[in-house]
Structure formats: structure tokens, C-alpha cells
Predict the 3D structure of the following.
Amino acid sequence: MEARFLPEVIGTMPKVELHVHLEGAFTYEFLFGLIQKYGGEERISSVDELSRRFVFRDFAHFIETWFWKNRFFRSPADFEESARLVLKNLSDQNVIYAEAFFSPWDFVSNGLRVEEITEATISGMKSAEREFPIRCGLIADIVRDYGAEAAEERVRQMAPYLDRGVIGIGLGGNERDFPPELFQTAFRTARQLGFRTTVHAGEASGPASVWNAVTALEAERIGHGVRASEDHRLLEVLKERQIPLEVCITSNLKTGVYSSVEEHPFDKMFKDGLMLTVNSDDPSMFGSSITDEFALLVNKLGYSEEDLIELTLNAVGSSFLPIDDKRALIGKIFGFWLNGSGDSPG
């Protein structure tokens, strides 16, 4: 396939996404419907006005806006339908497998219990899996901003859902004020219970955050991880161990971690042999889907068909799926690239 056709192919090629937050991937139409349903924001009278609310000055403003939109998720049905619509949107982009973060603790101030939010989210996910050609595993983001003392309890709250759709424990939030090493007990418990683990690190904070995610928390994957580029020894360790990084280029630009695609270290890290995956993070909040992220690599950095295949296979290999399920995904991916279908080439 010639490179000039790649932009058309990006939309239809099978994709795997490992770093997308359900709460940041809502559709604007759905959120606008919630605002109309619950009221309290007379200034927002259209979907276009709502979209302009998601332009961020810096990372702190992003977090502020994150909690603002959370106010409008007030019933289990809101979470169920939003999860279904998020996965429908991913499936429409030919994402065949996703591992999606969700943070039920962010919504208890709305009068909801963690358990009912989790049940509703799983229900929405299962509904989407029945309706659309997509599979999903949920990762409970215990959110470091709530502090380390209650973190183990939050992990244990997820234990009943381990075989029902929740496959992992993640750690997002304010990386600077709540460094990874504070959460050693919680992550030890997560591993003992059978959860897979991933930690946001090396985004708003520097290489030390990534070091501690790897050493203190023994994270299997790193969310973002791009500030590792500032420490040559850390890069060597990540490369040697092939620890996957869930990279979200546009997210890093929108929150001011880097000022341009050219400044972003993705290209150099990929060419140096690190295990990178392509992700959207919060597509509705940052205005960039996983399809857009692949398009950015092609249009801005000149990535080839072979590069796109390698990055997709990186995501499969870095996923928390059993090996047989990984093989099935690989068959679909090669089936598409070899003969333009989702069937295994045999």
C-alpha cells in the first residue's frame, strides 16, 4: 500500500486503545443532554458552547474542568448509557479492543455509591459488547488525589468485580503532590488480589515519578511516561524491560507538557526501541480521538504502514488480555493489512 493512501486507511484499520478514560470520552451530545436534564448551567445553550468549555489554560484548569463536568453524572443510568456510547464511538473507529479507565470515587459527592456506579458502568460495557464488534476491560483509577490512606480500601472495593469486567487498577490524578511511592500498600494488595496494574507517571512530573512507578509500585505499564525522556538511564531500563508506555500526544500538548509535536519525544523514543502505544486519553476533552492520533503520526511525522502495524501490535502485546485472545486480535490486524478484511489470513 502506498503511503499516499494511509490517511484513508487510518479510519478503517483495526485499533487497540489502552489509555482512555470513560469520563473523558463522553459524547458532547450526551453531556449536553445531562446538562439540560439537571440544569444549573444556563450559559451553555448548545453543543458548540459546551465544546468551547473544554479549552484548557494548563493542567490545573484541565483538572478543574474535569470535576465540573462530573457534576452532571447523577444516576446509574447516566453511567450506563455513557459507557455504552463511548464504546460505540470507539467501535465506529474500528477499535476492536480497549482498556478503559473509570473513577467511581469521583462521583460519590453526587449522592451515588461506588458499587452502583461500577455495576452501571459494567452493564453499559456489556451492552456495547453485545451490540458492537468491540471488547473492553475496565481499569479502576483509584485517583491519587484522595490520598494514600484510603487507597487500599478502594482497591478492595473493586475485588468483587475482578471476574466481571474490571481487570486492573490504575493511579491517575495529581502526580506532583501525590507521588507513586505513597501507594505501595494499595498496589501490593492489587497484585495479591489478581489485578493488573498501570500508573500515570512522567506527565506533569519528571523522571523520578516514572522510576518510582516502576520500582516502588512495580507497575506493569506506565500511563504517559514521556518525561522519562529526560533521564537516559531510565530510558535504558524501560527499553531493556520493554515496559509499555501509554502515550497520548495531543493530551500532552493540550495540558502544556510540550508545546509542539516536534518537541514531543514520541518519535525519538519509538525509533530508539521503547515499547510505545498510541492512545487518546480524554478524547472529548482534548478534541482528539485515537484515529486522530494515528493521523497525526502520519501527517506530522511521516509514519509508514509498517510503523502503524508495529504500534498496533505493541498495544496488543501490552494489553492485559490472555495470550489466546491476543493471538485472535493479531489475526484480525494482519487480516486487515494483508487483504483488507478483519479475517485472519490463515
